[in-house]
Amino acid sequence: MFKLTAKALVCAVSLGIAGWAQAADPILIKFSHVVADSTPKGQGALLFKKMVEEDKVLNGRVQVQVYPNSSLFGDGKEMEALLLGDVQMIAPSLAKFGQYTKKLQIFDLPFLFDDINAVDRFQNGPAGQALLKSMENNGITGLGYWHNGMKQLSANKALHEPKDARGLKFRVQASEVLEEQFKALKANARKMSFSEVYQGLQTGVVNGAENPWSNIASQKFYEVQKYITESNHGVLDYMLITNTKFWNGLPDDVRAELEKIVTEVTKEVNNEAAALNAKAKQQVVDAKTSEIIELTPEERAQWVDAMKPVWKEFEGDIGADLIEAAQAANKAQ
Ligand code: LMR
């Protein structure tokens, strides 16, 4: 029979303890983002943390730390941090992936989607789902799409018609499509990190911007923008992403449970986003610092005519088939 010597026993026990200590060390997921807790993305990150940490199957094996408001990494740095393993999850706006794929530029095309429901249908269809996996060669795995909402134009000047924007400087996210969108209005576009926008608007470095209501309200952009045109001219949504190597390296049961939680959180974020934006709009209305401009159908048609030519410039990079699939999503099945 196999007998343990005293030395071997000590060794086996200490190895056992080391193994146990290792198993007890939770897997840490740092989730960094650039917006406020009150926004759809902010709420989604917090819900993910709560669900992971209360999950019976995971049983404390995964811990989540959420860093909102660019407190850990801001725009431009968060993607690099994900690739370096300094954070494990981020959810950048779909406008911020230009370095990794040109296909996601589709989401920036002005007046492509009629509303957020059309965006939802496209994201959940085969073309949208395939895009989640399109950056794995770069080490980025898409886990889902999270809505924020449709963008509104704001400025220190009333924007009723495209000619009103002529010569103004607009802050844009890091997206070539969005730059061209403003150039099509004979306006200037300036790429700027989200955390710098308030000051940029306040000091006049830029005169205007485009944001969903949740960002306008939570960043208090209404304090420094006299006019907000309810243009709904484009979408600002997110891709929840993780580091492919990190994700594939997780124990199978942990990854499967996290995927289940991500699916539930995604559903919840996407169900709640419209209500959060409606609440945010009311906050802006109540603040009474900006005039909210509603477009007549004729005025809206002018904005469409002015901005839509931008599609042609990017059709080659994005693919006409993808643009067609997005347009098809405008019709409810
Ligand atoms: C922006 O830079 O305006 C947005 O992408 C910020 C965000 O994450 O909603």
TrEMBL record:
It holds the Pfam family DctP. Residues 1-23 form the signal peptide. Keywords: Signal, Transport. NCBIfam families: dctP, TRAP_S1. Belongs to the bacterial solute-binding protein 7 family. PANTHER family: C4-DICARBOXYLATE-BINDING PROTEIN DCTB, PTHR33376. This is C4-dicarboxylate ABC transporter.
